[in-house]
Amino acid sequence: MTKQTHIVTGTHRVATAGGVAVSFPAVRPRTLIAVVVASAVLLGVTLWGVIVPADVHLEVLLVAVPALTAAADNTRTTVSMTALACLGVVAVDADDGLPSSPILPIDVLGLLVVCVLVLVFRRLRDVDHRTLCAVRSVSETAQKALLPPLPCRMAGLEIATAYRSAAAHAHIGGDVYAAERVEHTVRMLIGDVRGNGLAAVDDAAAVIGAFREAAHRDVQLEHVALSLDAGVRRRVDQVSETDSNAAERFITALVLEIPDDLHVVRVISCGHPDSMRSHGADVDFLEVPQPAPPLGLGGDRAAYQVNTFRFEPEDTLLLHTDGLLETRDGAGAFYPALDRFALLAEDEPHYLIERLMSDLTVHAGGEVQDDVAMVAVRRRAATATESAGEGGRPASPVAGPAGRTLRCGAAKRAMRH
User: The PPM-type phosphatase domain covers which part of the protein (predicted)?
Assistant: First the structure.
């Protein structure tokens, strides 16, 4: 009995039969659908054109055949279907007694014109598609440089992040997050840059760089916030000569630290939405009574007050930007973020973030109008082995099925199964 196997490699499918490998192009679903529909139209019009009386000319409808192949991926499909459509025109015109009339070449010419137009427009579409892919690739690279993935684990914390830009086809915007391991403490930042476009990206890069430096240099959390504000103000002063609206640029932010040896989280709010916390069945906002001004507006040292909240093992923090709270549905109702978080808080951080982002998109009708960033942090009781292996470094990749490298949540799913 001959054993046959099929292997898909890139755009080709390889079939092996009796040790002999035969390669043929893999057909995409949309190309297959286009060919099936165009073939159905070709056969239907041709057969019906032969059946109806000679004074009813249906062959003109065959111009739909090359037009329907516009969804196909290659030129060969359009040319082949056009050639078959020309044969159909000849058959119908011959049956109508018009093989020598000028109607036949006119019908064929119409098919050829449509074929050429389809090929030209497909070429233009392919050029635009390649350009869009290149732009998205640059955007993804820029996002990875600006917002590199946070470690899945830092000391006794499990961390997951999600980010969605409101700009169409973009992967980067003005929402930022960062985390740094400092001795026996994890310091974190989440912020929202006012405005959008390249100016917002520039400000986001500046505040992340300032945080990474200040988190290791400054001992007290309020000093970190002061350093961030000073850094943003310096940046505003630098760009004020070329940007008349520079004075209106600021960043709302939460600056946090989570010590290893105390079950607390210390928070300084710089005009940013309060984070959420789950503790068992209870879910609440960590309300900061007196937030400091946003970064860049020159708050003094007394404004940056540290607020301390309990953060026990198995508790989860959800840090987020205002896009999570301000997204509306078609009726104008805000997204019920706290209620949704309460339903999903027991999930692992990776699943929590995924499901919240998916639910938010559904609530918004498929299109979120504002940048959204979320960071889920869960405190675990770290064992001695885990403590020795984490140290704030990104988790090592785990080999998944078929040698595919999985990270974070995907790796956990692979290990479960």
Answer: 154-379
Compute φ and ψ for 369, nearest 5 degrees: -90, -5
CB 135 within 8 A of CB 166: no
Q: Give the full edge-to-edge strand order of the sheet including 157-164.
A: 153-154, 157-164, 372-379, 316-320, 276-279, 282-285
Asked if 154 contacts 397 with a C-beta cutoff of 8 angstroms, the reply is no
In the chain, where the domains are located: 25-137, 150-383
Tokens matching residue 348: 């692992």
32 to 8, 28, 36, 84: CA distances (angstroms): 17, 6, 6, 17
Please state the length of the chain. Answer: 417
Q: Which residues of 213-226 are buried (b: 16+ CB within 10 A; e: fewer)?
A: ebbeebeebbebbb
CATH of domain 150-383: 3.60.40.10
Closest C-alpha among 413, 340, 353, 361 to residue 161:
353
Q: Using one digit for the tens of pLDDT, what is the confidence trace for 3-57?
A: 444 444 444 444 455 555 554 455 577 778 878 888 888 888 888 877 877 666 7
- Strand, helix or coil at 96? coil
Integer distance in angstroms from the first to the last C-alpha of the chain?
34
Distance CA 395, CA 231 (A): 31
This prediction's pTM? 0.65
* Lookup result for tokens 């405190």: 379
Q: Which amino acid does the sequence have at 143?
A: Q
- What φ, ψ does residue 169 adopt, rounded to 5°? 65, 15
Where would I find the H helices in 317-408? 323-326, 337-344, 349-363, 384-390
Q: For tokens 């760009």, what's the residue?
A: 239
Of 288, 302, 211, 287, which Cα lies nearest the Cα of 251?
211
Q: Using one digit for the tens of pLDDT, what is the confidence trace for 326-355?
A: 888 888 899 999 999 999 888 899 999 999
